[in-house]
């Protein structure tokens, strides 16, 4: 694969291993802080909706200690300017051809060569926005799902420690079942 050939030139944070840590009550406050900072940075681009998503947005769920945030854009027309506004604050743009997800534009906040935040920019009309919120909210409402997801994530992180994409892919069935039925399995 082309990307694998060039990994030796990638920054350290791009290939760091998958590491799950115990839930941290501070993640909620950190998420609010990141949202506040992003609101100021993205205000000129008419971004009004910003949400804390992912495992750090779900109390009592272990996670990679990375704050995931999503924000809605009107279009990709100002993407270059958005990226330029975010770079001085430590956000690194990952082009779609490397990210592999055409429906979003992805940035990673890096501090001391470690990922501290992910920013998922999405268009107003994208269905992934609602799916992210539905998954987060269903887990928040159902503690038994948190426990099941926690066990799954820890196992998959050990199995896929050096392959972030495989780790993410391996969670897909659980996520889809929660989205479709509200439960991990029918």
TrEMBL record:
Pfam families: GrpB. InterPro entries: GrpB/CoaE, NT_sf. Coiled coil: none annotated. It comes from the Bacteria. This is GrpB family protein.
């Amino acid at each position: 694969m082309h990307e694998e050939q060039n990994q030796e030139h990638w920054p350290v944070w791009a290939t760091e291993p998958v590491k799950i840590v115990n839930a941290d009550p501070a993640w909620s406050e950190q998420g609010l802080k990141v949202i506040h900072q992003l609101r100021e940075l993205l205000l000129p681009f008419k971004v009004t909706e910003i949400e804390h998503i992912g495992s750090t947005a779900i109390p009592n769920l272990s996670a990679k200690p990375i704050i995931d945030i999503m924000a809605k854009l009107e279009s990709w027309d100002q993407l270059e300017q958005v990226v330029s506004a975010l770079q001085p604050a430590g956000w690194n743009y990952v082009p779609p051809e490397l990210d592999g997800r055409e429906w979003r534009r992805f940035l990673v906040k890096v501090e001391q060569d470690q990922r501290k935040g992910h920013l998922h920019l999405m268009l107003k009309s994208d269905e992934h926005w609602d799916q992210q919120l539905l998954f987060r909210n269903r887990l928040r409402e159902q503690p038994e799902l948190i426990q099941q997801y926690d066990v799954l994530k820890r196992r998959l992180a050990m199995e896929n420690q050096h392959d972030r994409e495989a780790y993410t892919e391996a969670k897909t069935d659980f996520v889809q079942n929660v989205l479709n039925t509200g439960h991990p399995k029918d």
